[in-house]
Design goal:
Blueprint: H1 10-29, H2 36-50, H3 57-64, H4 68-80, E1 84-89, E2 92-100, H5 102-123, H6 132-146, H7 154-159
Antiparallel strand pairs: 1-2
């Protein structure tokens, strides 16, 4: 256990791990002209496109956990870089659909390989990407992500 982690709460450890991961991915994909947030968007879009989906910005925001306004900003920057195209949904004129361009598919494919190697490195202490401990860790993370969180009001904390 690292020095600063002794006696740490699970919330602090989750935050630290997420920050460690964000910084590592930022550094790993920077040579490809991407940030971690942009990578999250294009990698998710890549997977959705492979399964035949052309998602709306809203659908991609829901999938990634990013705010819709932030997804819109990221999509505009990725469009300006020639990595994705934004088009009006023919079934809903208010919605914007996203798709990777040929250049976007190539850059995203390279980024996915880089991040996959990074993920393997991160998960090595659990036995690697295909280890039973990693599958258990993934189930635990999924359970935590699926647990609803309601903000606690100040009045509730005073009554406790």
């Amino acid at each position: 256990m690292s020095k600063g982690s002794e006696g740490a709460t699970p919330g602090f450890l989750v935050w630290r791990l997420s920050m460690k991961w964000r910084v590592a991915v930022d550094r790993a994909v920077a040579p490809l002209g991407l940030t971690h947030a942009q990578y999250s968007l294009v990698a998710s879009l890549h997977g959705m496109q492979r399964s035949g989906e052309r998602p709306s910005q809203r659908r991609l925001a829901d999938h990634t956990g990013l705010e819709p306004l932030y997804v819109s900003k990221l999509a505009r920057a990725l469009e300006a870089a020639g990595l994705l195209e934004r088009t009006r949904d023919p079934h809903d004129p208010r919605a914007v659909q996203l798709a990777l361009t040929e250049q976007g598919l190539e850059v995203t494919g390279r980024a996915i390989k880089v991040v996959h190697k990074l993920l393997q490195q991160l998960l090595e202490p659990l036995g690697g990407l295909d280890a039973a401990r990693t599958r258990e860790f993934t189930r635990d993370l999924t359970a935590l992500l699926d647990a609803p969180l309601d903000p606690i009001s100040e009045n509730e904390t005073e009554q406790s």
